[in-house]
Amino acid sequence: MFKGIRDMGYDMVISAITMVHLDVRRICQLLDDKVNAVWQDLDYTPRTCPSSKTQLCTYLAWCARPDSRRKKSYVYLPLSASRLRQVLKFRMGCHGLPRDSGSWAGVPRADRVCRFCGAGSMGDERHVVFECPHLHSVRDKYAGLFSVSTMVQFFWQDDLVSVSKVLCECMDVMLGADSDDQSQTSDQP
């Protein structure tokens, strides 16, 4: 334990004669600094950031909860476990869209395009929510949610249940989910 605390940068002298007093506030600050360090240097947009930080950058720029929405959470929505998992995976960037699956397969980023629209557009989260013409019918069904222009505004609207439904319906189309299976799946817990 002491080695781990020292490795974080906490200076202390260990003595077999006297009790070691730890400054808990300083240790907590060092832990916070270590956690927050992962978010440093993410000043790129998700579509242009280095591949090694794409998921972090995407989450921070497009999906992270703004301070003004601290009381809202997707976790407590009345969604089935599978639908909640689908929404959370979308937000975390491990969803199987071309941007994600292409990175697993070593496909160059320029070739991780949407397979539906033929425009050569990056198959990423923003493309699914706002751009892909193949998903126009889903956007029309939930037109009231699309008066916003940014991903953060979209994700943190007052009606998180409808936002979740949009994401799930879009992902069902994009990943080729069988529509018969989805019609039998309830959105209730």
Separate helix tally: 10
Helical content class? 40-55%
Give the N-to-C terminal Cα separation: 42 Å
Low-confidence stretches: 178-189
Number of domains: 2
Mean pLDDT across every amino acid position:
81
Based on helices, strands and strand pairing, what is the structural class?
Answer: mainly alpha
Q: What is the overall silhouette?
A: elongated
Strand content: under 5%
What can you see in these coordinates?
The protein is mostly helical and 189 residues long. It folds into 2 domains: 2-37, no CATH class; 54-184, no CATH class. Helix content is 47%, strand content 0%. It is built from 10 helices and no strands. α4 (81-92) packs across α9 (160-174). It is elongated, with a radius of gyration of 21 Å.
What is the element layout, followed by pairings?
Blueprint: H1 2-7, H2 24-37, H3 54-63, H4 81-92, H5 98-105, H6 125-131, H7 136-141, H8 151-155, H9 160-174, H10 179-184
Helix pairs in contact: 4-9
Quick structural summary:
The chain is mainly α and 189 residues long.
Jot down its keywords.
single chain, 189 residues, mainly alpha, disordered C terminus
